[in-house]
Amino acid sequence: EKFKDGLTKTRDNFSGKVNDLVARYRKVDEDFFEELEEILIGADVGFETVMELIDELKLEVKRKNIKDPAEVQSVISEKLVEIYEKAGKEEQSGLNIQSDGLTVILFVGVNGVGKTTTIGKLAHKFKTEGKSVLLAAGDTFRAGAIDQLEVWGERVGVDVIKQGEGSDPAAVMYDAVKAAKSRGVDILLCDTAGRLQNKVNLMKELEKVKRVIEREIPGAPHEVLLVLDATTGQNALIQTKTFKEATDVSGIVLTKLDGTAKGGIVLAIRNELNVPVKFVGLGEKMDDLQEFDSEKYVYGLFA
Ligand code: GDP
């Protein structure tokens, strides 16, 4: 239900237009496909993905000898799910959580996308599942970032390992990993600085942070989650490319899906950059985070 509610704006934009299109056309012709193409691009599905979908749809219409535009509508959702799942359903959802010992999750992404909020929400989720959680204030660059993480820590009831503003993020990570190990914590969630202005610096900082974590815990970090703001549309694609170059991104958290009519960006990220969306943010509150599910997502666009 939450998932569906979060997609209200996208659904109104997308399926409203598709319904209108289907109502206006008597037959499935080239003009029909051209209008459909525009609707999909308008929902930020991404150019390459739209082209692929339209090609697939044309083939299917031919194969099944579909004449009625209304029939195309159900094929659209089928094909959207197919495109999303092409790269493997099993790796698309869920996190790589260690059944025994510490799991370290690193969060990357530019400022303002909702990184701190997502860390707080996930901390709450893990705590609810009975796991012990610790937070690492690795964004020592942005003024207020440490305080903000502490506010979430208090709200959720988990400790934050920190140093002063301007300190070395790798040193904070070192402290955090040590603390997590000695306290026998299940999950360590690590914030990082989100500056993109200088890609070389970003890369160096992330590499250093990762190296410290790896040295203390072989195999860690177990996830590197890139947090993206769905309302930034195609910009989110560019950010994904940049962060993929800087570090090994294992999954995406797409925030503010509730605030955009362009939720099609999920498909573009998956299909064009081959990174699975693992969670979506559907609001500002503690429990406004949902595990991503491609079928629920696609059917939420229509139903
Ligand atoms: P950070 O700079 O990346 O750490 O971003 P913050 O966590 O401070 O979030 C920036 C703003 O986005 C805050 O006002 C959050 O409440 C808001 N926000 C974060 N996630 C979501 C979401 O899923 N939906 C909505 N509507 N707002 C969100």
From TrEMBL:
<dbReference type="Pfam" id="PF00448">
    <property type="entry name" value="SRP54"/>
</dbReference>
<comment type="function">
    <text>Involved in targeting and insertion of nascent membrane proteins into the cytoplasmic membrane. Acts as a receptor for the complex formed by the signal recognition particle (SRP) and the ribosome-nascent chain (RNC).</text>
</comment>
<keyword id="KW-0378">Hydrolase</keyword>
<comment type="subunit">
    <text>Part of the signal recognition particle protein translocation system, which is composed of SRP and FtsY.</text>
</comment>
<keyword id="KW-0675">Receptor</keyword>
<dbReference type="InterPro" id="IPR013822">
    <property type="entry name" value="Signal_recog_particl_SRP54_hlx"/>
</dbReference>
<dbReference type="Pfam" id="PF02881">
    <property type="entry name" value="SRP54_N"/>
</dbReference>
<feature type="binding site">
    <location>
        <begin position="255"/>
        <end position="258"/>
    </location>
    <ligand>
        <name>GTP</name>
    </ligand>
</feature>
<dbReference type="InterPro" id="IPR004390">
    <property type="entry name" value="SR_rcpt_FtsY"/>
</dbReference>
<feature type="binding site">
    <location>
        <begin position="191"/>
        <end position="195"/>
    </location>
    <ligand>
        <name>GTP</name>
    </ligand>
</feature>
<dbReference type="InterPro" id="IPR036225">
    <property type="entry name" value="SRP/SRP_N"/>
</dbReference>
<dbReference type="InterPro" id="IPR027417">
    <property type="entry name" value="P-loop_NTPase"/>
</dbReference>
<comment type="similarity">
    <text>Belongs to the GTP-binding SRP family. FtsY subfamily.</text>
</comment>
<keyword id="KW-0963">Cytoplasm</keyword>
<dbReference type="InterPro" id="IPR042101">
    <property type="entry name" value="SRP54_N_sf"/>
</dbReference>
<keyword id="KW-0342">GTP-binding</keyword>
<protein>
    <recommendedName>
        <fullName>Signal recognition particle receptor FtsY</fullName>
        <ecNumber>3.6.5.4</ecNumber>
    </recommendedName>
</protein>
<dbReference type="InterPro" id="IPR003593">
    <property type="entry name" value="AAA+_ATPase"/>
</dbReference>
<feature type="binding site">
    <location>
        <begin position="109"/>
        <end position="116"/>
    </location>
    <ligand>
        <name>GTP</name>
    </ligand>
</feature>
<keyword id="KW-1003">Cell membrane</keyword>
<keyword id="KW-0547">Nucleotide-binding</keyword>
<dbReference type="InterPro" id="IPR000897">
    <property type="entry name" value="SRP54_GTPase_dom"/>
</dbReference>
<keyword id="KW-0472">Membrane</keyword>
<feature type="domain" description="SRP54-type proteins GTP-binding">
    <location>
        <begin position="276"/>
        <end position="289"/>
    </location>
</feature>
